[in-house]
Amino acid sequence: MESQSNKNFLTTLKKQGIVFAMILVYVVFAVISKQFRTPDNFILIFRQVATIAVMGAGMTFVIIGGNFDLSVGSLLSLCSVICIDLHDKIGPVPAILVTLVVGMASGVISGYLCGYLRLNSMIVTLGMMNVLQALAMMYTNGQFVQMADSNAWFTKIGKGSIGPVPISTIIMALFIIIMGIVLTKTVYGHHVMSVGGNDEACRYSGINDKLVILKTFVLSGLATAVGAIMLCSRGAAAQATIGETYEFDVISGVILGGASLSGGSGSVYKTFVGVMILGILKNGFVIVGLPYYLQWVAQCVVILIAVYMDIMTKRKKGV
User: pTM higher than 0.85, yes or no?
Assistant: First the structure.
């Protein structure tokens, strides 16, 4: 009986290990610092990770499909400056719609090159990263862009709250739930898993793997545009470099969430947990006074451990 209980515990630990890791990290910082465990700081963490979590939900589809999207940081910059600039010119709602279209259009280009032309996704999106960053610089002429009215209703998206809950957190939760349902409960979600696991077998079974891959990049572009709206509305301003390094945080969160680097497996919900771990680490490091450069080192170590565990798991399974 006791042996069976131990087996059940180990099975649960393997399946939900990332959740236990998140709880452990939070508890460690909560014990170290009183400031860390305050309700206000807890809410702040959710507000800080909202953009990365939304982008991570889209990136999860790309990675499960067997690809990478390194352009999301630059796309975040471009979408942010476009949204802020157009807010005063054409109004908030049209600006939001244009921003979403720009995000998805970028995904179409990357998805077509990777899906239909079979180009390497890292090379394609690395090139797109430079192109999108250049477009952001050209659009703003290198200048800081801000709204005329910093108290417009648009800013409530990023810094407003409904009761104690930030609106950005609500948007994040709804987006993750919807994307999670798409991945686990729809035919398309199963196709993404299949294409990432064995795209050749999918082609023989009649699945249009090219279109499936293209759609993963479109979803990533859409998620990045939504993240940009949340990010720029928080400060009612943006600059052409606002999205720098975000691609690293987004991909790190997806990997920490257990998505396979070779494609075929992953979870939107666990990506959120991975992003939360990074958010807790960053917030905790700041509160305890860890130097900024050491924060990057610590985050890198966490990612390397996650990648190592992913490789070892595959070796044990004989993959």
Answer: yes
